[in-house]
Design goal:
Elements: H1 2-5, H2 11-33, H3 39-55, H4 61-71, H5 73-101, H6 105-135, H7 140-153, H8 155-174, H9 184-202
């Protein structure tokens, strides 16, 4: 029993190794997101590493993160800038509606509901765009167009992915002093794979494999 406890393949060491991977990947995401405009490529890299290495047990999660970050840097920055500008416009529109509706009454309630409904699509779209970038090659325009198309085509899954992202952000803000930011980014990405991978698999061309050859991780 003592020997099996220290076996690297034991459940205890596999669990602690998985927790360590989540912490390190979250830290890498935080560091790579510091310039703000790199949040997109960092998120694409995080999703890719979580899908490939944490969920499908491939090796090298940190190496895969850094490789995916570099590969998606240009398109990811462009898409991030677009989403940041959209966030500014939505915020400005919200402030305008607040001033137009006043601070109370039924009109104010309607304004808040409209704003929340309006946020569903861009949040869901952003939650889809960077995971999509991690799996396929796009220009900025192509990425935005396809993420919008997938959002409406698979709305329940994309809304769930958006809700998961918002929940992760809220938990990080509320519990930052407990170090939540070292868990929530990678956990959010890992959970998102269960929502998004079935969608991505539908648009991934099947590869002809020799008999006995294991399919690539994204087709398992």
């Amino acid at each position: 029993m003592f020997h099996s406890f220290f076996n690297p393949e034991s459940p205890f060491f596999r669990f602690t190794g998985r927790v360590l991977d989540i912490v390190v990947l979250s830290f890498l995401w935080l560091v790579c997101s510091l310039p703000v405009v790199t949040i997109g490529p960092a998120s694409a890299a995080l999703y890719y590493s979580c899908a490939k290495c944490l969920r499908h047990q491939e090796s090298g999660p940190y190496r895969n993160f850094l490789s995916a970050f570099r590969q998606n840097l240009k398109t990811g920055i462009g898409a991030t800038v677009v989403f940041l500008l959209l966030a500014v416009l939505l915020d400005a529109g919200y402030l305008f509606l607040v001033m137009a509706a006043g601070a109370g009454g039924s009109v104010w309630g309607v304004v808040r509901i409209m704003y929340l409904v309006l946020l569903v699509i861009p949040v869901s779209m952003a939650s889809c765009a960077f995971p999509l970038l991690s799996r396929f090659t796009y220009t900025v325009g192509g990425l935005l167009a396809n993420s919008l198309r997938l959002t409406f085509r698979h709305l329940p899954r994309m809304v769930a992915a958006g809700a998961l992202t918002v929940t992760a952000v809220v938990l990080t803000v509320l519990f930052w002093y407990y170090g939540a930011m070292l868990l929530t980014p990678a956990l959010c990405a890992l959970l998102s794979t269960f929502l998004l991978e079935p969608v991505f698999r539908k648009y991934t061309p099947e590869e002809e494999l020799e008999e006995g050859v294991e399919p690539p991780w994204y087709l398992r």
